[in-house]
Amino acid sequence: MGKTDKHYALGLTFLFLAVGAFTASHHEMWRDEIQAWLLARDSTSVFNLFAHLKYEGHPGLWHLCLMPLSRITHSPVIMQMLHLLITGITVYLFVRYSPFNWFQKFLFCFGYFVLYEYAIVARNYALGLLLITVFCVLFRERYKRFIWVGCLLFLLAHTSVHALIVTIGIGTALCCEYVLGGRFLKPLNEDIATIENKKSIWIGFALIGIGITTAVLQLNPPPDTGFAVAWNFNYDPKRVNNIVKLIARAYLPVTRPVFGFWGSNLLTTYPIFQAIQIPLCYFFMLFSVLLFLKRPTALLIYLIGTFGLLTFFYVKYHGSIRHHGFLFLTLLMCCWIYRDSPAINFGKTAQDNTGSVVSRVLNVAGTVVLTLLLICHAIGGVIATQMEHRHIFSYGKLTAEYIKSQGMQDHLIVGEIDFAASTVVGYLQKPQIYYPRGSRYGSFVRWDKARTHNVSDQLVIEEARKLSREHSQPVLIILNRAINAKLIEQHNLSFLVKFTGSVIGNEGFHLYLMPNG
Fold first, then answer.
1. How many helices (H) and strands (E) does the chain have?
2. Mode of pairing for the β-strands spanning 433-435 and 440-442
3. Alpha-carbon separation of residue 202 from 135, 216, 357 (angstroms)
4. What tens digit of pLDDT does each residue of 409-453 get?
5. 15-62, pLDDT tens digit by residue?
């Protein structure tokens, strides 16, 4: 690895961080970002945090990283700084160590997922991207550092349910490679069958197994969970087709340059793409299988990761573009580790196999296809950052700033809908407000069955009136909808201000003041 590569990596990383920092400064965090911050901030201990996380559907590594920061400051901006730093490290490692050409590396750094979804929107998925990247860096000498590989995959399993599925694919493939590799595979760099330090290998596998097991246990919801409780095991051809289409969404995330850009796809607006979308997805899968066919480790990771993710999206939770992105990360990871994966032993040398005409054609075609995909990612990334600059993502931040400017941050506050109002709570740096859904005080949303739905404006006003009388002070009401004029007059409410027209449509806010008594 020469100085030129290092300088290129550093240059791209600084450019990425500059663009990312500028874009992040224009990004108003929404409820999912703030939810993680409030969970970390308001959990009294690690054990208390994990008790709260039982309702979240994700393991807790990201929240554990946020806890120390929340003890330094209650401002969630520090979370954005950490998140961008994590992605910046990922960019450096990718550019410095990946086997792709300089142009592909450039496209990756400014692609939709890297530049926007896993850099600007501060969620737990960036940690998964970083750990997958570190795994790829270590892959060439994996058996010399297998305890480190085990630790890495232990952590990866605890970043998200989607990274957990990828971890299962990696762990299974490595186990098959190690156990069966001596008989059926011809290694490129080291003899799997005669590795001296077998104890460290099994320690590494134990760490992977423990990581997967503990992550699954964390994801086991409590009996009173109230979010995404359904499972879908019935065969539905239409649903199957919709899930298959997610491959195109993940591989070709060309964002629409419109107000509602987030999660949109420009290609799906063209009838010709709609007609070929499903066949194109099957082509991508078949082509990938052919590309990895002679390297069973890469092939197995791709198959388990891809079909594991698609199965999860089908039977449990369809998810959004940030979740679907792990389909592309799985493909990219397998392309990275391909050359360092042992080849099937057909009695020829690995060089002979690689030098075959078919292999050459597939490798050239693979390079072309991957470059075209990365170009689409870069277009999507540029469009998304432009739209982020032009539009308000969520009005939670501006609503909080207005409340502070009016000196009302210490008022009793009633927030409805809770998941929308929690964004304001995070930016207010307020310990808690009252949520009519669940009839309780809180900051983060607790997704349990006690949390009621369809709370009427009348009930919200009645709850605010009750609090006003109990505490003998006015109550600020935050809603993400307008109250009927008759109710305002009937209860002597004062309309203060409204903030509407954000990218996250239900994170616009209407503020009302309930007078004392």
1. 21, 8
2. antiparallel
3. 17, 21, 39
4. 999 999 999 999 999 999 999 999 999 999 999 999 999 988 877
5. 999 999 999 999 999 999 999 999 999 999 999 999 999 999 899 999
- The DSSP string of 268-308 is GGSHHHHHHHHHHHHHHHHHHHHHHTT-HHHHHHHHHHHHH
Confidence at 189, pLDDT banded by 50, 70, 90? very low
Nearest 10 degrees: Cα torsion 125, 387, 378, 118: -10
Specify whether the CB–CB gap between 317 and 178 falls below 8 A: no
Residue linked to tokens 């694919």: 169
Q: Which amino acid is at 69?
A: L
Domain boundaries, the chain: 3-390, 396-514
Beta strands 440-442 and 412-416 are unpaired
Q: Which amino acid appears at position 426 of this protein?
A: G
Query: In terms of C-beta density within 10 A (0-12 exposed, 13-18 middle, 19 or more buried), how is residue 295 classed?
Result: buried
- Please tell me the chain's helix, strand, coil percentages from 3-state DSSP, rounded to the nearest 5: 65, 5, 30
- Helix axes of 31-42 and 77-97: crossing angle, nearest 10 degrees: 110
CA angle 343, 133, 300 (to 5 degrees): 35
Q: Which two tokens stand for residue 419?
A: 């998941």
Tally of CB atoms within 10 A around 221: 17
